[in-house]
Amino acid sequence: MLLIESLYTGDAAPAARLELNFDARTKSRLRTRLADGEEVGLFLPRGTILRGGDRLLAQDGRVVEVASAPEDLLEARCADAFALARAAYHLGNRHVAVQVGEGWLRIQADHVLETMLTGLGAQVHALAAPFEPEAGAYAHGHHHAERGATEAKIHQYS
């Protein structure tokens, strides 16, 4: 099994691809497979949240590119900016990971949240797409007593 323990910030081109959904990209310990089927073990620093395009350094020296796998999402659009902000507030109040785009919000598929958004007047539709939620306002310094001071945190994945 290929071992991966660190992020890579150099200029070398990736030699392999690792496609993961968002839940998997929030785990610092994970057994999975590269796109070519090779088994890998991720042992990253606790609190690491991988993003599509990140690169990792494997124990054998290979650079592995992370790709965000498509997953089942809900996209909410509203009649105006006020209604969209209101929907975003209610999602944030529930500590839900949210991807923000031009005129839309995306969340992982959840029928309870879909009902809430519809009740707030949003037009909600299902789609399959990569999920890249906001890291949060305090991504580089937000911490809790039980966590390290530099650890990014999305509450839904704590």
From TrEMBL:
Claim: Cytoplasm is one of the keywords in the record: yes
Task of the protein: Involved in urease metallocenter assembly. Binds nickel. Probably functions as a nickel donor during metallocenter assembly.
Family annotation (CDD domains): UreE
The keyword Amino-acid biosynthesis belongs to this UniProt entry's keyword annotation: no
SMART domains cross-referenced by the UniProt entry: UreE_N (SM00988)
Domain of life: Bacteria
Protein's UniProt name: Urease accessory protein UreE
Residue stretches making up the UreE urease accessory N-terminal domain: 3-64
UniProt entry keywords in alphabetical sequence: Chaperone, Cytoplasm, Nickel
Example of a GO biological process term: urea metabolic process
Gene Ontology CC, one term: cytoplasm
Family of the protein in this entry: Belongs to the UreE family.
MF (Gene Ontology): nickel cation binding; unfolded protein binding
Subcellular location: Cytoplasm
